Amino acid sequence: MNSVDPNLSLSCSNLHRHLGVGEGRVHVLKGVSFEAHRGQVYAIVGPSGCGKSTLLYLLGLLDQPDQGDIWINGQRMSNSLDQARTAARCANIGFVFQFHFLMLEFTALENVMMPMRKLAKLTPPEMAERAHSLLNAVGLGEKTQRLATQLSGGEQQRVAVARALANQPSIILADEPTGNLDVKNSAIVFDLLTRLAKDNGQAVVLVTHNPEIANRCDFVRPMRDGEFIA
Amino acid sequence: MEPASLMSPNLRIACRFLTAKKRAMLMSLSCTVLGVGLFIVTQATTGGFESFFIKTILAADGAMRVEDKIQDTLRSMSASEGSDFMVAHREGVKYIDGVEEPDLVVNALKQFENVSGTSAVLRGNIVVRSSFKSETAQVFGINLEEHKKVSDIEHQILLGKLATFGESPSGALVGKVLADRLDLTVGSPFILDAVGQLRRFRVSAIYETGIRDIDKTRVYVHMNQARSLLKKPTGVTFIQINLFDKDRAPQDAARMQEVLRHSARPWQEREKAWLEAFRALSVSSAITVSVFTLIAGLAMFNTLAMIVLEKTKDIAILRSMGYERRDITQIFLWQAGIVLVIGALVGALIGAIGTFAVSRIPLPINGIFKTETFQVSWSALHYFEAVLTAGIMVMAASIIPARRAARLEPGDIVRGTAQ
User: Fold this and answer.
1) Most B CBs within 10 Å: which of A85, A105, A123, A127, as the mutation test of the B interface?
2) Contact across the interface for A114 and B318, Cβ inside 8 Å
3) Could you state, in chain order, the average pLDDT of each consecutive group of 10 residues for chain A (230 residues)?
4) Is B324 an 8 Å CB contact of chain A?
5) What ipTM does the predicted assembly reach?
6) Three-class SS of residue A5?
7) Which secondary structure element, helix H or strand E, spans residue A104, and what is its range?
8) Helix, strand, or coil here: A38?
9) CB within 8 Å: B325 and A114
10) Which residue is closest to A56 within chain B, CA to CA?
11) Which among A91, A104, A124 has CB closest to B1?
């Protein structure tokens, strides 16, 4: 199906997801379909609780849909085993979360090298070199040996961007990547994310409440009550 | 390449998680160290006394004794009514006291490759009379040169010289306790009274085995003197045997019994009661000390469970980066493994130092053996058992939190709904 289009990194169709149990069970996603192409930046916007993040976690294979299909680079992943989904995340998907989620006991360099160590495609010196280059690209070349705790919020999020790009994934998924940053840092992080992703031909899907950020994306997909509305 | 870069990613993460929880990990580590160290020290001391006891009894009574002759009682019965064919079957075993033909038996014993020495011994009950008082005892008629090969009599001499005994036909070796009771010293005359026969002897030397029962009752004299005293011109009571490999005594005894048709008692059977007491003591001390490793296991469980709670976000980010469930399990098991390895190494070192220190503690014991200090045994098995016990406790306690961490769903954690 979608595998015929080489530019299509990610697609999903008719995704349904319920959360909660018993009387608290909510139908969060109601048959959502979506496509993301290489080199394009997509913003998913909408009010809190409309299902944006749930969709992002499903697309990132961190969660499994109750119904529907997810395709990553032409491979159907929605019903695959945990091991296959984990391998796909390692090779094809980079995440940026709202609260940066750096590992605090590690330096900026080590945090960026973490996904590379798991993928193990490069030698350790090559990993270090690539991590240095990514940190240079996000403007933290002088702070590679600093622990995550010794970096500001904006710097931590820039390290998270570098980490998301570490394995050269075809898809970058960002959940409110600027949600915890001031205006200046928001702009820096967004510019970095989109520039580096476009340079590398990566599809970027980001969830945001920030209309300024959304308006600077190539595509904006508003959501309400578990569905895209336009 | 830096040494750190040789580490697996999981081990690297485990090390950092560990150092982030220093205090809790030190608690687990100290319990592991204490458990391993104390296990080694207690096993070294109980094992030490057991080894010393075995050494003492082997030095006194040898590895084995061949004694009473076995006489099978056979009963014949006809195969069927009117048949001439008779079947013999064994009803039981009767023993005839002593060894009637010691030379033949000794020659046969020398064919066993594990036998390093034999000594024919004639034993009888006697009364020892000194100028001071009388004591009941047992006389042991021996051939000194033979007996030196099956006992440690040379090194048990406290006063006098063994050579004096060898040169003096009426010389005798008297146990220290008996000598003290009878107020005998080297050169003192005394009389042995057996079955109405009185003979005068002179103390050539006073020995001490450390086993009170022996030192209180045994008087060694030359074999010809014992024969004359006990009126037994032929035969001996038993043949004391020494072996190259003492641990093989039960197997050799079974073969000797079969071949020689004399009962053969290995030292393990002879001293069974004491050996079982030592074993019970060893097991009970091991169980008691294992409480420390149990506490180490509980502390490890507690620490890892805390880390799982505190590191759920890290687990989520690792999973989102492509780390598998088994990687997460490994990260937590590595943490337990690191504590275990450090605990085992430090514990083994402390155990070795403790064992050495204990071996220097003065502790005069006289009864079942004689020693002035704590006896310890240095055995790699103690270290292996200590590490194995700690390993089982610590790793078993780590499996539950490690599996719990691996089961966490990254989507639930990021959403904040992880259980």
Assistant:
1) A105
2) yes
3) 68 90 86 90 89 90 90 86 89 84 89 92 92 88 90 88 90 84 78 82 89 88 87
4) yes
5) 0.86
6) coil
7) none
8) coil
9) no
10) B411
11) A124
If DSSP codes are grouped into helix, strand and coil, which group holds residue B68?
strand
Q: Which residues contact B154 (CB under 8 A, 6 or more apart)?
A: B148, B162
- Closest by CA to A179, choosing from A208, A149, A204, A219, is A208
Closest chain B C-alpha to A126 CA, distance in angstroms: 12
Q: Provide, as residue numbers in chain B, all residues whose Cβ is less than 8 Å from the Cβ of A160.
A: none
A14 φ, ψ (degrees, to nearest 5): 55, 45
In this structure, what are the phi and psi dihedrals at residue B337, rounded to the nearest 5 degrees?
A: -65, -40
Write down the residue that tokens 């403007």 correspond to. A139
Write out the two tokens for A131.
Answer: 């991590």
Global pTM reads 0.72
Nearest to B54 by CA among B207, B272, B212: B272
Whether B414 and A114 lie within 8 Å, measured CB to CB: no
CB contact under 8 A, B409 and A53: no
Contact assignment for B322 to A118 by CB distance below 8 Å: yes
Residue of B9, B327, B415 with shortest CB distance to A57:
B415
Give me the amino acid identity at A138: V
A91 touches B: beta carbon within 8 Å: yes
Mutating which of A19, A54, A64, A103 best tests the B interface, going by the most B Cβ atoms within 10 A?
Answer: A103
- How many CB atoms are located within 10 Å of the residue A23 CB? 5
Q: Do A125 and B1 touch (CB under 8 A)?
A: yes
Interface of B with A in 294-323 (CB under 8 A): 313-314, 316-323
State the Cα–Cα distance between residues B289 and A75, nearest whole angstrom. Answer: 57
Residue-by-residue pLDDT tens, chain B, 419 positions: 444 556 788 998 988 888 887 887 888 888 889 889 988 998 898 888 888 888 888 888 889 999 888 776 655 555 555 556 655 555 566 777 888 889 999 999 988 999 999 999 999 999 999 888 889 999 999 999 999 999 999 999 999 999 999 999 999 999 999 999 999 999 999 999 987 788 999 999 999 988 888 999 999 999 999 999 998 998 999 999 999 999 999 999 999 888 888 888 899 998 888 889 988 988 888 888 788 778 877 887 888 888 887 888 888 889 888 899 999 999 989 988 998 899 999 999 999 999 999 888 888 877 777 788 888 889 899 999 989 988 888 888 888 888 888 888 887 777 765 44
Report helix, strand or coil for B10: helix
**And the tokens for B195?**
């079955």
Domain ranges (residues) in chain B: 3-59+274-410, 64-73+94-270
Instruction: Kindly state whether B417 is in contact with chain A, defined as any CB-CB distance less than 8 angstroms.
Output: yes
List CB contacts (< 8 A) between B20 and chain A: 104-105
